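Handout, section B. The chain below has 213 residues.
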Amino acid sequence: MQKIENTVDMLSTNELDSIDEITLVTRFQNGDTSAFNTLVLKYQDQIAKLIYKYVKDVEATKDLSQEVFLKAYKALPRFKHDSAFYSWLYRIAENCCIDFQRKQKRRQNYLYDELPKTPEECLLFGSFPSPSHFVEMEELGDMITKAITHLPPKQQEVFKLRYDQKLLMKEIALHINRSEGTVKTHLHKAHRKLRELLRPYLENKPLEWVDEK
């Protein structure tokens, strides 16, 4: 299918409102696939507004709108006219939005779970799933690496000794000539600071600190 927005000449709002969708659907199901382009023009604004109410993001709205109409295009041959075309299209859009939100939620929850929370957790950057399974993990690893440079020097040192060199608490204490309690305190503060630094990233917000160094 050609790119939707370039397939037909623009019609006026009145012309679009007067279009008989049943006729267009029937034409499409009888082999006239060009009829689908007019259906897109008739409903693309309504679908975009619906999607935006869910996702509150312009780029995501564009992508999901395209996805909705592609799914409708593929499924339309099986449309049985047991509901209005727009009702059917609305359900496709709604399901796409729900799937999108679930994926975003799973991504955020997974990434939050992967962040260090207690000094006893053995979080090793190399233990993240491969990018082929979780592409976000590679990006998150890069973000964590950058965020570490924003830790205070002692916290940064302790964090790297713990997770880069895999030293035990007592080994770190001997290395920096401090008590194990002090090491745990530095590590706990480092974990908390990293979560604060990375929270905007996990919420798909700009990271103000990225270009500071």
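Note. The chain has a mean pLDDT of 76. Compare this with the example in section A.
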